[in-house]
Amino acid sequence: MFKARWARRTDAARVKVFFEASMELEELPGEPGAFPRSWKESFRPGRAFRFCVVEDDERRVVGSCTIHDHFSTYRGRPIVGVEDVFVEESARGRGAGRTLLAFAERHAKSLSAARLELHVRDDNEARRLYERFGFETLPYYWMQKPLRPVKRAPRPA
Ligand SMILES: CC(C)(COP(=O)(O)OP(=O)(O)OC[C@H]1O[C@@H](n2cnc3c(N)ncnc32)[C@H](O)[C@@H]1OP(=O)(O)O)[C@@H](O)C(=O)NCCC(=O)NCCS
User: Fold this and answer.
1) Which residue in 35, 56, 59, 61 is a FRET match for 91, CA 20 to 30 A apart?
2) Contacts of 62 (CB under 8 A, 6+ apart)
3) Across residues 74-97, what is the average pLDDT?
4) Pocket test for ligand 1, best of 129, 131, 132, 135 (most atoms within 8 A of CB)
């Protein structure tokens, strides 16, 4: 039996491995050093997302995802996004991924959210898991305009 819970600060080392592995699978460029910033942000009061982990029977963390609180202006209700879903290879195919999704859904329901949403590459087998869980594919393009970080002038000493 797998169990999902919100990540604690002590999960950092395990989650870093999963997060960086999931980043490597994406073709969208990740930024080196993103994890420490994202991890720190996820514990800031008022943050828009948190990390969630899934544990096996021995309470070993075997996977993680991020859960993002958004808002649908059309629905006038929150939306919950699930991203960075990753389960270590040896634990796959036994329901850990589904357990992360179910946790996100419980969180969404607790907010009376209008829907769960996620992004997945069209050639990723994970689509089967998402479809069986109830996700539908939408006829939209996912567009982006990459921006460079703003360089700030150093503060005067
Ligand atoms: C996608 C992923 C999180 C699923 O985790 P999981 O614990 O195996 O998921 P579950 O056991 O709940 O569900 C298994 C389903 O996941 C899908 N799946 C995708 N890749 C898989 C893999 N390598 N091994 C097993 N199942 C996989 C299948 O649809 C499988 O369904 P099936 O049992 O009918 O074959 C996991 O395979 C993974 O971490 N993959 C690499 C990272 C990734 O692609 N993440 C998704 C980014 S959007």
Assistant:
1) 35
2) 2, 54, 55, 56, 87, 88, 90, 91, 96
3) 98
4) 129
Domains in the chain (CATH in brackets) are 3-133 (3.40.630.30)
Q: Look at residue 52 and tell me whether its pLDDT is greater than 90.
A: yes
Q: From atom 25 of ligand 1, which residue's Cα is the shortest distance away?
A: 93
32 pLDDT more than 90: no
Angle between helices 96-110 and 126-133 (to 10 degrees): 40
Say whether pLDDT at 145 is over 80: yes
CA atoms within 13 A on the CB side of 95: 10
Ligand 1 atom at minimum distance from 99 CA: 12
Q: Is the CB of residue 127 below 6 angstroms from any atom belonging to ligand 1?
A: no
Whole-model pTM over 0.85: yes
